[in-house]
Amino acid sequence: MTTKSAGRLLILLLFLPSLSFASIHSSSNSPADMTHTWSGYACAIIFILAYITVTLEETIKLKKSKPVLLAAGIIWAIIGFSYQQVGQVEIAKEAFEKNLQEYAELLLFLLVAMTYINAMEERRLFDALRSWMVSKGFSYSSLFWLTGLLAFFISPVADNLTTALLMCAVVMKVSENNQSFINLCCINIVIAANAGGAFSPFGDITTLMVWQAGLASFLQFFDLFIPAVVNYLVPAILMSFFLPKGCPELVKEHVDPKRGAKRIVALFLFTIVTAVSFHALFEFPPVVGMMMGLAYLQFFGYYLQKSLPRILEQRKAQALANNDETTLKRLGSIVPFDVFKRISHAEWDTLLFFYGIVMSVGGLSLLGYLSLISGTIYPNWGAQWANIFMGALSAIIDNIPIMYAVLTMDPIMSTGNWLLITLTAGVGGSMLSIGSAAGVALMGASHGKYTFLGHLKWTPVIVLGYAASILTHIWLNQTLF
Asked: pLDDT tens for residues 179-194?
């Protein structure tokens, strides 16, 4: 989640000759090009400074949403003043409202998805899965492959951050004294979680953005399944030769999920079906179906609350009849399910960071910077090489601004190339530990056993997987190009 190349790219723009407002040529229907004005330079510098601050999040302990929220406000204040001077304030207002609408749709979609994930976590579904894994006595090799494969297949429906943290907790629980194994496992989990999220519209914010923009249908994302598998397997197979032999010490643990956990999973799957149906049948934004899915969870939460006293009485009677002291103690800790509490536990820092990025990049687009970059990279390099480069850039810049920048540039590309940038932006972050939210989170969760340098040592192997997945996509899906 760092930025250097984007900074260099925008800084280069600052050395272009400056123009005054009076020299700007534009029609009343098209926004003025302000890439060479003081306002354009100021907005570019503000965005660069904000993003540099984001990259220092772990060092200065400042939430990443704060600098980009401030930057977005200042950028649009400058834009408002500048476009007022040239008589185009209405164009600036329309651009702002368009960006805000796009953000609002994604915000509500992600809020529902995060609420469901938090509800599953509160019902201890993930704890139950973890306890099952740590009590089975798997070998180091089995644990490596099991956590990787689960990360790959859970991340398409849960976000890759939650998935990675869950799998990391398992690894830390069963092998907390083996640093080299934890480092390898964490690298494997990061690669798997990012790859798994790349072939599902629900697996990552970037895939969701492409789907909601209507650039690929729901089913077309699954054309990326085999390339995503290749992206995961190539480095995983090579790393598996360096795993320790034997088994970690067995850990005995048992956790029962709370009442309603499995039904919440079923409701989440039904919510996904609802969102896809609204988009496929009526061409409505998927967020309509997701908000309807939130109603499913609210009504189920209401049922859990109303039926709780009756269920407690039944279980208490059974426990007293069986003289089960353990069950009686556990009954005292049961609390009603609260949907709104689950909503409050959403990743608000991430959601607000996303607002800052969307509005800042949207402002730079209105000023003309993204058109300038798009007119340079995509025509001169070709769509495939440009998409490969943008994906690799996501190893040092968060993939959200990368994908939003490409969507805002809106280069003319085939469906195959839109899927290519979806793939590369999704898996490119695996090349560095700081290249994805999963990697950054695991560096903190592993207590220093998974590090930047430990990941960097395996970057050449991960690059092989990155290249192999691209070649696989171009070969298998050549009819889409």
From this structure: 889 999 999 999 999 9
Spatial separation of the C-alpha atoms in residues 205 and 202, rounded to whole Å: 7
Of 12, 28, 174, whose CA–CA distance to 87 is shortest? 28
pTM: 0.73
pLDDT digits (tens, 9 = 90+) for 301-348: 999 888 888 877 877 777 667 766 665 455 444 556 777 887 887 778
**313 and 182 in one domain?**
no
Neighbours of 116 (CB within 10 A): 25
Please state the domain count of the chain. Answer: 2
Residue 31 lies in a domain: no
Same domain, 110 and 231: yes
Task: Examine the domain organization and report whether 187 and 121 are in the same domain.
Answer: yes
Q: CA–CA separation, 312 vs 331, rounded Å?
A: 7
Extract the tokens encoding 268.
């989440």
Q: How far apart are CA 394 and CA 403, in angstroms?
A: 9
Nearest C-alpha neighbor of 408 from the set 477, 361, 348: 361
Q: How far apart are CA 79 and CA 35, in angstroms?
A: 12
The one-letter amino acid at 167? M
Q: Domain boundary residue among 336, 360, 394?
A: 336
Task: Give me the chain's average pLDDT, please.
Answer: 83
Query: Distance (Å, rounded) from C-alpha 248 to C-alpha 15?
Result: 58
User: 183, 449 in Cβ contact below 8 A?
Assistant: yes
CA atoms of 316 and 187, how far apart (whole Å): 46
Which pair of tokens denotes residue 180?
Answer: 């080299």
Domain boundary among 315, 336, 357: 336
Task: Report the share of the chain in percent with pLDDT over 70.
Answer: 89
My answer on whether 228 and 375 are in the same domain is yes
Contact 428, 392 (CB under 8 A): yes
Distinct helix (H) and strand (E) counts, the chain: 23, 0
Range of 309's domain? 259-336
What is the tens place of the pLDDT at every residue in 234-273?
999 999 999 988 887 776 777 888 888 899 989 988 998 8
